[in-house]
Design a protein that fits this description.
Layout: H1 3-10, H2 12-19, H3 23-26, H4 30-58, H5 71-86, E1 87-88, E2 94-95, H6 97-108, H7 113-120, H8 128-134, H9 139-154, H10 157-166, H11 172-185, H12 192-221, H13 225-262
Antiparallel strand pairs: 1-2
Helix pairs in contact: 2-13, 4-5, 4-6, 4-9, 4-10, 4-13, 6-12, 8-9, 9-13, 10-12, 10-13, 11-12
């Protein structure tokens, strides 16, 4: 068994907890998607900060330019930056995936005001966590973001790569597509922006990014046992943060449904 396989085996309990989370059974219609996206959008933004931290560590972003140690890993990171920061939307217009997500939120009627206001107040890495803690985000959202920025501030490339690689969800895109398809069949609005974003997410994560990210972890850790242990520890915490975020959204969905029943 390879070291990556050992990591993936050790993460199976949390992966299963995430895969079987009650949140998925509560996502029944477009209003539920609205609620989910209004919280999940912080994880979409957070992903870009992890990616940029990796770009800073694994490629040369300074002047004068100097050659990097591993051109294969540098190319992988630069390719993800190209696709995540400057992909093209359903109309062929260059946009970041985060901006596409905001467009999809607006398309389904989700509120983008809070995330937009949140981004306006960000200044730098040194003050970001104080800003997060003083923001109107809920406890799970704050904890999720604070964890990522703790990892980034520690400045260990292998643990940043671990949070980037192992801390993400697998189930949501397919589920959203099913809900969107059902809404369209019922004669409700069509959602081209949402469908394009989700299909692009599936295409890139499954076919390209996933295998290369695992190879990156292997190259960064090599035969260093301590690094592998840190990768496992950070990966477990990243998944737990995702589970906690899911639980927070599930609680909000339940509250929304109870209010609807009482109305």
């Amino acid at each position: 068994m390879t070291r990556i396989e050992q990591i993936e085996t050790a993460l199976l309990p949390q992966r299963e907890a995430l895969k079987n989370h009650e949140l998925y059974s509560l996502l029944e219609d477009v209003k539920d998607i609205q609620c989910f996206m209004e919280s999940h959008v912080y994880a979409v933004w957070d992903f870009m900060s992890l990616l940029k931290a990796l770009q800073r560590k694994l490629t040369c972003t300074q002047v004068p330019w100097l050659p990097v140690n591993n051109s294969t890993t540098a190319r992988f990171i630069n390719e993800i930056v190209l696709e995540e920061e400057t992909d093209v939307n359903e109309l062929g217009v260059p946009k970041s995936h985060f901006s596409m997500y905001l467009d999809a939120m607006e398309e389904v009627g989700a509120n983008t005001k809070q995330i937009t206001q949140f981004l306006l107040g960000i200044k730098d890495l040194e003050t970001i966590q104080g800003y997060i803690n003083s923001s109107p985000l809920n406890a799970a959202e704050k904890s999720f973001l604070n964890f990522s920025f703790n990892v980034i501030k520690e400045d260990k490339v292998h643990t940043i790569a671990a949070a980037f690689t192992f801390g993400r969800e697998d189930v949501i895109p397919d589920m959203f597509l099913n809900i969107i398809a059902g809404a369209e069949r019922n004669g409700e609005l069509v959602f081209p922006k949402m469908k394009y974003y989700l299909n692009r997410h599936i295409e890139l994560d499954g076919d390209e990014h996933g295998p290369l990210a695992l190879k990156m972890i292997t190259e960064l850790c090599g035969e260093d046992e301590h690094k592998w242990q840190e990768v496992l520890q950070v990966s477990k915490e990243a998944l737990q943060q995702r589970i906690n975020l899911w639980s927070s959204i599930a609680a909000q969905l339940k509250e929304n449904k109870e209010k609807l029943q009482m109305a």
